Amino acid sequence: xxxxxxxxxxxxxxxxxxxxxxxxxxxxxxxxxxxxxxxxxxxxxxxxxxxxxxxxxxxxxxxxxxxxxxxxxxxxxxxxxxxxxxxxxxxxxxxxxxxxxxxxxxxxxxxxxxxxxxxxxxxxxxxxxxxxxxxxxxxxxxxxxxxxxxxxxxxxxxxxxxxxxxxxxxxxxxxxxxxxxxxxxxxxxxxxxxxxxxxxxxxxxxxxxxxxxxxxxxxxxxxxxxxxxxxxxxxxxxxxxxxxxxxxxxxxxxxxxxxxxxxxxxxxxxxxxxxxxxxxxxxxxxxxxxxxxxxxxxxxxxxxxxxxxxxxxxxxxxxxxxxxxxxxxxxxxxxxxxxxxxxxxxxxxxxxxxxxxxxxxxxxxxxxxxxxxxxxxxxxxxxxxxxxxxxxxxxxxxxxxxxxxxxxxxxxxxxxxxxxxxxxxxxxxxxxxxxxxxxxxxxxxxxxxxxxxxxxxxxxxxxxxxxxxxxxxxxxxxxxxxxxxxxxxxxxxxxxxxxxxxxxxxxxxxxxxxxxxxxxxxxxxxxxxxxxxxxxxxxxxxxxxxxxxxxxxxxxxxxxxxxxxxxxxxxxxxxxxxxxxxxxxxxxxxxxxxxxxxxxxxxxxxxxxxxxxxxxxxxxxxxxxxxxxxxxxxxxxxxxxxxxxxxxxxxxxxxxxxxxxxxxxxxxxxxxxxxxxxxxxxxxxxxxxxxxxxxxxxxxxx
Length: 702
Description:
The chain is an alpha+beta fold.
C-alpha cells in the first residue's frame, strides 16, 4: 500500500521559488543606490567644472564689449548705484516702497548722531533718491530767510549731459512737499539763483532724524551725482558753519553713477541658465547685469489620485534616505548692487576661482565660479556664475526614484504574469486585441509599445509578433517625427561655429567696405538659418508636449476675450472685434495650447490682411452642438485646391519671403492642437472673395 504523500513544505514549493525570483528584482535598486552614492562626488566635480566653463564662456563673449563695462568708478566708495525698479515710487517720505532694495543702502558718516543712508533707483525716465538722515536736532529754514544755509539742508551736486556742474539745495520751512533751489556750483554762496520745479520730493520727520524722497528727471543728470547734507543746530544768523556729509569725495566733486546695462542683460539671456544665475561685474565689483535664478518651483505630481499618493509615498521614503533638496532657501545676494568675496577678488585680479558657501539659513549650498573679462589694458570686469548644489541631490533623487519605480514595475509585471498564467484563453485573446487597438490611433500613429506576453504558446508568439511589428513601426514613426529635431540638433553646433567665426571676423579693422557687406550677408543668412532651426524645434516640442498635457474644464469665451485684449498690444494698428454671444462655452482641454493655436491663426491673419481692415474673431455654436471658433481677415483669397493642404507641415503660400523665413508650420501646429482636442480645422474663402476665414470646431463640455 502506497504511503500517503507527505505535505511539501512551502519553502520547497515552486511558488516559493517563484517568489524568490521575484524578490531578486529588489537587488536592482540596492545596486543602483550604491552606484549613485559613489558617483555623487563625481557629479559635484562635474558641476564645478561646468559652472567654471559657463563663466569663462560668458567672459569670452563679453570681451569685445568693453564699452559696456567702462562705467567703473575710480573711487568705488563714492559711486551711486541706480537700481532698476518696475514702477513709479509714490513720493511720501516713507521707505515702504523701497523694501526689497533697503539692504543695499549706502551708509555715510562715522557718528551715530549724524549720518546718511542713501539709496537710488530709476524707472520711466526718472531718478529716485531715498535720503535717510540721522539727526538728533532738526533745524528748519526760518520764514522769510533768503539764504539756504541757515538750517539743515539736502544738497545735490550733479554733472549734466554737457559736463557742466549744477548744485541744487533743499532747505524747507517745515515737513512736507519740497522743491530744489539752484545755487552757485562752487557753494560759496547759499543764495538761491532760481527754483527748479522739476526736482520734487517729500520731507518727513522720523524718530532720530528725517527722510527725504526725491524725483529727478533723468535727462537732468549725466554720469555723475553726489548727495550732500548740511546739519545746523540753530537757525540764528552767524550760528556757525553747517556740518556737512557727502556721498562724493568732497562737497565739490560728484561721484559716479552706475546703472545696470540692458545690453549686457540681453546678451546673458542667450546663455543656458536653468537653475543658474549669472552676474556681470565691473572692475569695482558693481553689478552691471544679472540673469537667471537659483530657486525653482517644486516638481508637480501628475496622474490620478492613487498615482499621486504613490508618488508622494515613494518620494517621502527617498527623501528620508538621501535628503531632500530644499529650494525655499534664503538668497542673500538677491538684488545686491555690489558683490564681494574671495572668488570675485580673484577674478578682478585676473584669475578664475570657485567657491562653495552655505546660505544664511543653512538650507542649501551655493557653488560660485568667476572668470575675468579681459580688455586691451587688462581686466575690465568679471563674470560670476552661481548654482545651487541641490541640483545634484535632485538628480540623485530622481535617478533613485526612477530606479525604484522601474523595479516596482518589473516586480508587479512579474507577479501579474504569474497570476495571469491561469487566465482563460478567450480573455488573453481579448486583451491582446484591446492592447493592439489602444496602441494605434485611427490615423495609424503608434501611441506606445505593446507589452508582449511571456508565454511560449501560439498566443504568446502572436503577441510577440504584434509587439515587434508595432515596435518597428513605432521606431520608424519616431524616426520620421524626430527628423526635424535631429536635423536642428546636428546643425546647431556648426551654425554656432559659423556665427561666432563671423562675429570674430567682424572685429578685424582691416576689412574693407565690400568685405563687410559680404560679412553682413553671411551673418543675415546664418541668423535666418538659426530662426528656421528654432521653428523646427518648436514644432517638434509641441508634438511631444501633446502626449503629456493634462486636460481641464474652462470657458473658451473668456479665453477669447483675454486673447483679443492682448492682440491689441501685440499688433498695434490692427483692430480685433469679437463676435460672441454673451454665454459660456465650456470646453475640456488645455487652455495654453488652444491659446497657442489661436495665436498662430491670428498671426497668419495679420500677415495676410489688407492694412486698415480688422481681424474678426467669432465664437458660436456649431450645427452638431460643438463650439465654432473663427478668425477672419480681409485680403487675398485662398486657392481652392489648398484649402486642406495649407494645414500640412512645410506648406506656405506667402508670395515673398521678406521679414524672415516661413516654413508653413504655424497652421500645421494649429491643426495638431485642434485634433488633440478632438476637433477639426478648416479654411474657406469669404463669399465676396475678399478674404479668408479659418474655423476651428471643438467638442463642447456639458
